[in-house]
Amino acid sequence: MFRISPRRSLLLVLVAFTFAAFPVVMLANHSWNGYHWARQSNPFNVKMGNNVGSLWQTALANASADWSQSTVLNTTIVAGGTRPKNCRPTSGQDEICSARYGNTGWLGLAQIWLTTGSHIAQGVVKLNDYYFSPGSQYDTAS
After folding, report:
1. Is 54 helix (H, G, I), strand (E, B) or coil?
2. 77 part of a folded domain
3. What is the extent of the structural domain holding 80?
4. In a domain, 142, yes or no
5. At a CB cut-off of 8 Å and minimum separation 6, what does 55 contact?
6. Residue 8's pLDDT is what?
């Protein structure tokens, strides 16, 4: 059976979101489907609203630190601007939320909103604690 740790799940969801939201230097078109954050230069900063429970605090900090090593992107963890269960977007940043969203079949979701054209205005990442309660099959270090 495939098991994934909460940290790896967060990283997978955030990496998927990154490829959807941020320019990727390795690719010729530097974006996914043309969507990207507006910026004047590199590196640019993306605020990550902290709406996660204690299970996710270390994973969020590690993801932010890893991404900020890039020459393209810096992330800053800021106070969350929403309630985790609702996980509403905040203009100009990504809200990272964790809650028991239930037996939905998804471990994590990412969503973006666009301004005119292809610029990202805001985003949310939802991490489903239903699957990551202590002792669950996904609560492992491997």
Report:
1. helix
2. yes
3. 6-36+44-131
4. no
5. 6, 98, 129, 132, 134
6. 53
The number of domains in the chain is 1
Two structure tokens written together for 3: 């098991």
Residue 140 located in a structural domain? no
**121 φ, ψ to 5°?**
-100, -30
What is the DSSP track for 59-125?
Answer: HHHHHHHHHTTSSSEEEEEEE-SS-TTT----TTEEEEEEE---S-S-SEEEEEEE-STTEEEEEEE
CA distance 66 to 1: 28
Tell me whether residue 138 is in a domain: no
Q: CA-to-CA distance for 125 and 88, rounded, in angstroms? A: 10
Question: Contact at 8 Å (CB) between 126 and 87?
Answer: yes
For 106-134, the pLDDT digits (tens) are 989 999 999 878 899 999 999 999 888 67
Can you name the residues that pair with 77 across neighbouring β-strands? 48
| C-alpha 132 chain-centroid distance | 17
